[in-house]
Amino acid sequence: MPGSKSSVAFLLAGVLIGIVIASTPRLSAQAPGPPSVEVPRAMETYFATKPIYRGLDANLFVQTSAEYRACCYQAYNLAKAVLAERIRDRAPGGKPPAVVLDLDETVFDNSGFQAMLVRSGLTFDIRLWRTWQNSVKGRLVTVPGAVDFIQAARAAGVEVFYVGNTKEEHRATVKQSLQDFGIPAADDDHLRLRADGEPNPDDKTSRRKWIADRFDILVIVGDNLRDFDETFAFSSPITPKDSPQKATGLIRERKDKVDARRNFFGSLYIMLPNPTYGEWMRPMVFGEHDEDMLAETRK
Predict the structure, then answer these.
(1) How far apart are CA 11 and CA 242, in angstroms?
(2) Phi and psi of 39, rounded to 5°?
(3) 3-class DSSP state for residue 98?
(4) Confidence band (pLDDT; 50, 70, 90) for 35?
(5) Virtual CA dihedral for 199, 218, 234, 118, nearest 10 degrees?
(6) Among 245, 236, 230, 225, which Cα is nearest to 200's?
(7) Alpha-carbon dihedral sign for residues 101, 58, 53, 18
(8) What is the CATH number assigned to the segment(s) 4-298?
(9) Which secondary-structure segment (H or E) carries 97?
(10) Is 259 helix (H, G, I), strand (E, B) or coil?
(11) Does the pLDDT value for residue 268 go beyond 90?
């Protein structure tokens, strides 16, 4: 039957992700009820993702593939080798050595949260993320290779800094999670979180500069190019009203920036895979029209 093969594949994918994340909470998207319907306070309104299950394949890759683990180990093995080489080649004196790591999807694996969104057909919502942050005990795992790298850096006398975009209100939770995995931050200065009131709270430039002014940064590890330098951010906002051609141009511009710094990758910058979310998704504001934009990209 036409289409039966794809239907079986989709069903199999659903079964797989159900097995992997059976313990992950599920929420439902809902529209506000009519005035005559009393909606319990606990039933918040969240927004459905379009197209439905758009993140299914990405989450299956992270949660079920051995290839994802291999990529992470490869990145962290390279990070250890680069760090050892840079320690060996450092001139005596100068600022003490340090490494900088992002947190989410670099140290912490939040694929359980992403899986909940997929199973529920929901798009990201800060309220859902806060709930996850406050209830990660027992659910959180680390990215393969992260703990070994951090322990190796500390054993070599290198300061380890965590620069994440988790909000300050979750500092205690993050500190406890690091402690639980045996990789605690040396002190609060070594845990640089997203500060309230910053003009662009997703921009890590000032936090990285604080570290660079005091330490010799030998390696930076992240899953998003903005973990390395803010110049990798999209240079212009993209909205559903913009043309696919505009998005295509901005995508090309970002790729060109990577090409210009190709020698940084595998040396100062160590990149981890993250197919589930990140700066790269900003052009995906077209929802059901994503394919139109992607068709333009392929031209």
Answers:
(1) 35
(2) -100, 120
(3) strand
(4) very low
(5) -90
(6) 230
(7) negative
(8) 3.40.50.1000
(9) strand 97-101
(10) helix
(11) yes
Whole-angstrom distance between the N-terminal and C-terminal Cα of the chain?
Answer: 33
Query: What is the dihedral sign for C-alpha 18, 59, 134, 145?
Result: positive
Contacts of 195 (CB under 8 A, 6+ apart): 168, 201
Supply φ then ψ for residue 236, to 5 degrees.
Answer: -150, 145
For the entire predicted model, the pTM comes to 0.81
Distance of CA 79 to the CA centre of its chain: 18
Assess contact for 241 and 291: CB atoms under 8 A: no
Inter-residue contact 149 to 194 (CB < 8 Å): no
The CA distance from 174 to 137, in Å, is 10
Cα separation of 234 and 143, whole Å?
Answer: 26
Bigger pLDDT: 196 or 212?
212
Tokens of 27: 């929420």
Is residue 190 helix, strand or coil? helix
pLDDT above 80: residue 111: yes
How far, in Å, CA of 244 to CA of 238, rounded? 10
Query: DSSP secondary-structure letter at 220?
Result: E
